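Methods, example record. To illustrate the input and output format used throughout this study, we show the complete record for MlpL-like protein, lipoprotein. The sequence lines were provided to the predictor; the line carrying structure tokens was produced by it.
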Amino acid sequence: MSSCEQDNNTNKGIKSRNKRDLEQQIEAQKTPEEDLREKLDDNQKKGLDFLKEALSSDSELNKFLNEDESKIKEALDHIQSELAKCTGDDAAGKKNTFKEVVKGALGDGLDKFTEQADSTCGQGNQ
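The corresponding predicted structure is encoded as:
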């Protein structure tokens, strides 16, 4: 009888190990975007969503995602702070214009992104 109990415990150990291995495989299969999203706050996630809309291809997004994480977060914070200025008349139009600005500024990488990617939302009539 004791050998049956021992087999039972061994099976439980194997099942537990298999489950843990499966969880690690799933973890390893995350895309760079999914991995980054886990590290972002809500505003940065909104900035990333806006950025995805602005970029016309997955390769442009992947290039962005391969940048240094601190630069990515800084860029996403900047995007959100600029978007917060887009209120009032023609806010949607100004946001669309800002998408083009963001896309152009990313062409030069993230080093000068915050200097080059300013919206026109805070200027003139709101």
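Annotations derived from this record:
The mean pLDDT is 81.
The chain has two domains: 1-30, 33-116.
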